[in-house]
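Schema walkthrough. Field components (list of strings):
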Amino acid sequence: MMVHLDRLRAVVRAAASLTRRLPLVSLLLAVLLLLPPLRAFGEATMVRQMLVQMPLIVLAGWCAGRAWVRAPEGSRAARLRSFADSFNRAGATGIVIASFTMILWMLPRSLDAARLSFGIDALKFASLAFGLGLPVAWSWVRCPPIARAVIHVEVIATLARFGWGFAAADERLCASYLQGDQERAGMLLVAAALAWAVVVAWRPLFGGLGGGKPAAKADRRDGAIA
Amino acid sequence: MVGMARTLGASLVALAAGLAVTWAATDGFTAFTLETARRAAALAHPAPVPALPLRFADGQLRRLADLPEQWLLVDFVYTRCTSLCLAQGSADARTMELLASEAAQGRVALVSISFDPDHDDPAALRAFIARDGAAPPGRLAAAPAATQDVARWLDAFGVVVIDDGAGGYAHNEAIGIVDPDRRLVALIDAGDPEAAVAALRVRW
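Field assembly_structure (string):
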């Protein structure tokens, strides 16, 4: 019995330390996704590239940005951040960078280029992690509520616009993907836009489902991670 | 207020950089798909076609440079195709009709290059161009002599071949115009023989 408990504790400790290393783990995951077999799998269809692979890379960058934001006071990461913060009041600079990165990688030409060239794909991985996920994590907590609302609307509109464009096009826009795949990807992007809208609108319209105010929680910088 | 000025400056730099990268990635906000980009590139920077040997339907090995015709129209096919390619086949036949007199004088040839050389031997290629009886003058078909050359041919013409999920292939279809110096000078919609012929006639 005791042996089992010890084992259980070890597993819990391991899981906890893994959580602390989440940014590292997720960036490692992103690098793994770039390895040839996983890269081929993740880009075999347009649906996978746009709705699975790319979001995972952005998530990896977001985890890294989160850790950076929460770096303990006095650490080198925190000193670098407070210097960088002075260029990113209200998160404006980070959001500009993130917007361009998001739109650029949704263009059919970019999807093709990433699928067909390893070099461009490596650029996609780096920019989605450090030009989209990371700047959002860094800037979101600094954005005033009105800016957040505008960003939500823009993201919803971008997903819906591109989704509709892909779904309604009567020819293949990507040389690497079939028309049916393109239509599926388009409809799923529209669905993602709708889901995003519902999630964002739910709390102001119907109240929270338990859980505190997200803005207050996000502003906490107690170095809990890192 | 240092933060305000710095942020304004940094945002403007990010905005300019974002616009510059988007400009570069879309050829000045004109080419949002690879297909548009490859057609624009062929017009702006004619590139020599590969000087690699092709096995023609008559069994002979030749390079495109060895063909006597001044101008070439080139498209990519695989002869087992039974779906979209039938439309391409009738477009090709229409192109040959429109160019019948020039082709009879030996001024132009329409060459279909197979990207499936393992299957498309000279017999398969002969059957392909002679679907409606005998192949008209100037109607040629060929396959890369070496299977490993296929990628270089596709690359030179910007063709991407993918599995169509039904045992065949799908690819971006276009007719390439190859000039007397054997450079690819234009790519025209495969389904539009009139446009291909017009694009050819303004050049000679």
